[in-house]
Amino acid sequence: MDAVKISYKTDQDLGKYAFLRALRPFSFPVALVTCLIGILLAAMQRPVNLFEALMVLVGGVLLQAGVNLINDHADIRLLRRQPGREHLIEAIRQNFRSGLLCFLLAAAVGFHFVIQQGLGFLLLCVLGLVGALGYTVSPINYKSRGLGVVLVFWLMGVLMIVGSAVALGAPMTLALLLQTVPVSLLVSLLLLSNELRDYESDLRDGLHTLTVRIGYAAAVRFYFGLLAGTYLMSAMLLSLGLLPGAFWLLLSLPLVLRPVRLLRAPADQRTPLTPATARVLLVFGVLFCVALVNPWSLPF
Q: Could you confirm whether the keyword Transmembrane appears in this record (predicted)?
């Protein structure tokens, strides 16, 4: 019992740098949804081996976990200026090492598909890994430059979906790239919701996220823009014949109401914003998959 109490107190002391909080399991739907969409897009063109499809999902979750665990590395520079923060710095370093281990395991999964698909897939893997490390590691550190919301659109959205499809033998086409956009916009929306939730603390700590740079009101407008763009892009895919079952996505609209209300909540009541946005992403992603595998059946 004492050990449990000590561990709990330690996690409380570490705050957002405690391992489980740094792992951010609420974000795992990003990897699961994007990889699943890639798998289905590949399966629409050729038979897909179930075991290899599971490998793609595992690799995607490992990559997501790695990105999450290294996410706070740039905070070390800020914490060094504050006395008594050595335990936080050490926690960040431990999380960073765990993140690198996740990347190593994801790379092992990726190597299996490089053997099958060749150098083109290797290039996708290298781009993804470099982008993931550059997200928060100096000297690139996209996060501190306010580019995180933009970069995750490509890295955890487009590249994840395309990579999953190509790993299973699908050719890279313009149609495939277009089909990645709606969910990729929601991936960016999820990160933006995290920035909006933490706006006051990031501003106080000198973290130059996109939301801190452009201001809370402008970031809220950007949130609405990404949300609207998701459904407008889905409508465009419908018109192009690339998502015939797009009407299924309308079922996700009621879930949008909660995060929209939370955008206007005071800072101390804004904590559920990111999980609420994650639910929108998860349900939208599942419905997107339904639209792909059963496009001619309407929900009404």
A: yes
